[in-house]
Design a protein that fits this description.
Elements (H helix, E strand, L loop, with lengths): L4 E4 L5 H8 L3 E4 L8 H9 L3 E4 L7 H5 L6 E4 L9 H6 L4 E2 L6 H17 L1 H9 L21 E5 L3 H12 L3 E5 L5 H7 L1 E3 L2 H7 L2 E4 L13 H6 L5 E4 L8 H9 L5 E4 L19 E3 L8 H20 L14
Parallel strand pairs: 1-2, 1-3, 3-4, 4-5, 6-7, 6-9, 7-8, 9-10, 10-11, 11-12
The chain binds glyoxylic acid.
Glyoxylic acid binds next to loops.
C-alpha cells in the first residue's frame, strides 16, 4: 500500500507533526491564516486524512471534493465547524480532543472571573495611563468578592466540572444548568441543579461552557440578560455565538449587568470597531482558553494520534462518531 497523504491546516509543534510523519506524507499549510476554502478543497481532494482547526469548515462540499478521505482529526474539543453527521454518512471517523484541555480552559475561566470581579484589567489601564496619584484610596476600585458568591455554570461537561472544582476552592455556592441533569455528580462536584431562568436570577457570576449548537446559539440574549442581577458578571469560554453581542453591548452599556469577560467573540477575531471594545466593564482575551504550552502540546499530540489511527483504519482515541470507525 502506498504511503497515505495528510494535510494539516496549521503549523503544529514538531513533536506532534513527527507522529504524523511516521506514517504519512504530510503537507502543512504554511501561513498564519487558515487555508482559503478553495485551497482546503484542493488539498483535501488529494489527501487520505486532514487535521483541522476550528476555523476550517468541513462540510458536504468539502467532503464531495475529497473522495479518498478516510480520517478527519480536529484540533479542538468543539466541533461546530465540522458536519459530523455528513462525515458519518460517508463512513469517515472524526477525531477531536476532549479531556486534555478542560483543566486549562477552566483555569482561564477562573482568571477571567477573578479579573472581572476585581477589575484587574481596568485598574491596570488606569495605572498605566497615569491615574494612580494617591497612595491608597478607601473608595477607589471597589470590585466584587468571589468567595461566598453564587456561581452559575451553564453546561456541566468536562470544562464545566473543572470550573466547579476550582470554584469550590473559592468557597463559592455553585448552581448549574445543563441539558441533562447529572444527579450522580452533584455531590462530587458540590453543585446543585437549577432551571436556566432560576440560575440566571440567582447567580453573581454566570459562566458559559456549552458547545455551540442550534440550541445554544444566542442562548444569552436580551431576555436572559434581563433576568440577571444588575451586579452580575457574565463569563464566556465556550463559543462567541452563544452570546448575542448586540444585546450584551446594550446590557453592559446600560448597567443591566455589571461586567462581562469574554474569551470568545462573534465573529472572531472581533472587529476593532466593535462597540463592545469601547466598554470599560468588559474583559476580553483572544480565544486563549487552552493556550498553555503543555496543554497545547498534549492536544496536538492527541489530534496527531487520532489522525494516524484513522489513516491506519484503527479506532481513534477520541472519536466523535465511533459508528463511522471500522
Ligand atoms: C477550542 O476552542 C476548542 O474547542 O478546543
Amino acid at each position: 500500500m502506498s504511503t497515505p497523504r495528510a494535510f494539516v491546516t496549521r503549523t503544529l509543534l514538531p513533536e506532534a507533526l513527527d507522529i504524523i510523519r511516521e506514517v504519512a506524507d504530510v503537507t502543512v499549510w504554511p501561513e498564519e491564516t487558515p487555508p482559503p476554502v478553495e485551497e482546503l478543497r484542493r488539498q483535501a481532494g488529494s489527501s487520505d486524512g486532514i487535521l483541522t482547526t476550528i476555523m476550517d469548515r468541513v462540510d458536504a462540499d468539502l467532503l464531495d471534493a475529497a473522495p479518498n478521505l478516510r480520517a478527519i482529526s480536529q484540533l479542538a474539543v468543539g466541533l461546530d465547524n465540522v458536519d459530523v453527521a455528513e462525515a458519518t454518512r460517508r463512513g469517515i471517523p472524526v477525531g477531536y480532543t476532549p479531556g486534555v484541555l478542560a483543566k486549562s480552559t477552566a483555569d482561564l475561566a477562573m482568571a477571567l472571573l477573578l479579573g472581572a470581579a476585581r477589575r484587574t484589567s481596568e485598574s491596570e489601564r488606569w495605572l498605566r495611563g497615569g491615574g494612580w496619584q494617591i497612595q491608597f484610596h478607601p473608595t477607589h476600585w471597589l470590585g466584587q468578592d468571589v468567595h461566598d458568591a453564587c456561581l452559575g455554570i451553564v453546561g456541566l461537561g468536562q470544562i464545566g466540572r473543572e470550573i466547579a472544582k476550582r470554584a469550590r476552592g473559592f468557597d463559592m455556592d455553585i448552581v448549574y444548568h445543563s441539558r441533562t441533569r447529572y444527579t450522580d455528580m452533584e455531590a462530587e462536584y458540590g453543585v446543585r441543579y437549577a432551571e436556566f431562568p432560576d440560575l440566571l436570577g440567582q447567580a453573581d457570576f454566570v459562566v458559559l461552557s456549552v458547545p455551540l449548537t442550534p440550541q445554544t446559539h444566542h442562548l444569552i440574549s436580551g431576555p436572559q440578560l434581563a433576568l440577571m442581577k444588575p451586579s452580575a458578571i457574565l463569563i464566556n469560554v465556550s463559543r462567541g455565538p452563544v452570546v448575542d453581542p448586540a444585546a450584551l453591548y446594550e446590557a453592559l452599556r446600560d448597567g443591566q449587568i455589571a461586567r462581562a469577560a469574554l474569551d470568545v467573540t462573534s465573529p472572531e477575531p472581533i472587529s476593532m470597531d466593535d462597540p463592545l471594545l469601547t466598554l470599560d466593564n468588559l474583559v476580553i482575551t483572544p480565544h486563549i482558553g487552552s493556550a498553555a504550552l503543555p496543554t497545547r502540546l498534549n492536544t496536538m499530540k492527541l489530534a496527531a494520534r487520532n489522525l494516524v489511527a484513522g489513516l491506519r483504519g484503527e479506532p481513534m482515541e477520541a472519536c466523535a462518531n465511533s459508528e463511522a470507525t471500522p
